[in-house]
Every structure is written in structure tokens, then in C-alpha cells.
Amino acid sequence: MSQDVKTALDEAQGWLGCEIRDVVSGARGICTSVTLWLNGCVRVSISPPCKKDDMCPDDIWVDWSQVVVESWVTEVTALISHNAVQSRIAVVGGPANDPPKVGQR
User: Fold this and answer.
1) What pLDDT band is residue 25 in, cutting at 50, 70 and 90?
2) Residue 54: Cβ within 10 Å count
3) Which CATH architecture has domain 3-92?
């Protein structure tokens, strides 16, 4: 792994739980995932807030270089974020049950 990719990955992992914004699309939400692709691309997911009718939009995946942090996570906001994630899980039906073993249905 090149030093540039490692630096990008380390920086993006620090955003987990923070409110971030994509400067290209303007999308905002909580950073819930950071991925490293085989080609060295570092991507982050933005979980937009749920709407009033409890409909939660799908996460938006963007390149780490087009993201800015709107608010850094603290212990208090981490707790609020955790509660929001638990609410989101209840709405979208996660976490999944254990998957069937190979050969079972």
C-alpha cells in the first residue's frame, strides 16, 4: 500500500461518526463506513438523516477527497449518533439474522 493511500485511509477512518458533506453534490450526513478498493481508491459512505415519515434514504458513497467534516464527533454526539443508528436499524430491519450455511436453505 502506498503512503498516499495509507494517509488517505487513516484520515478518512477518523471521520467515522462525524457529520460530513460532499462538496460536489452537497449531500450531508454521518460517515458510517470507509472502504479501500483494490485499485487504492478510498471511499466513504454518507448516511443522510431519515425523513419525517421514518423513510431512511440509502447511503451515498463518495471519494474521500471530496468530503469535508461539518462537525467532529464528541462523546455526547457519539451517544446521540449511536441512538440514531439504533433507530435507523429498527426502521430498515437490521441487523440481519445469521445467513444459512452452505447447502442449507
Assistant:
1) very high
2) 11
3) Roll (2.30)
Instruction: Please state the pTM of the whole predicted model.
Output: 0.65
Q: Which three cell numbers stand for residue 74?
A: 464528541
For residue 1, which amino acid is it? M
Task: Show me where the domains of the chain are located.
Answer: 3-92
**Rg, Å, the chain Cα set:** 16
In b/e form, how buried is each residue of 57-70, taking b as 16+ CB within 10 angstroms? eebeebebeebeee
Residue 90: per-residue pLDDT? 53
Contact 32, 88 (CB under 8 A): no
| Sheet order of strands, 42-47 included | 60-63, 42-47, 28-36, 19-22, 67-71
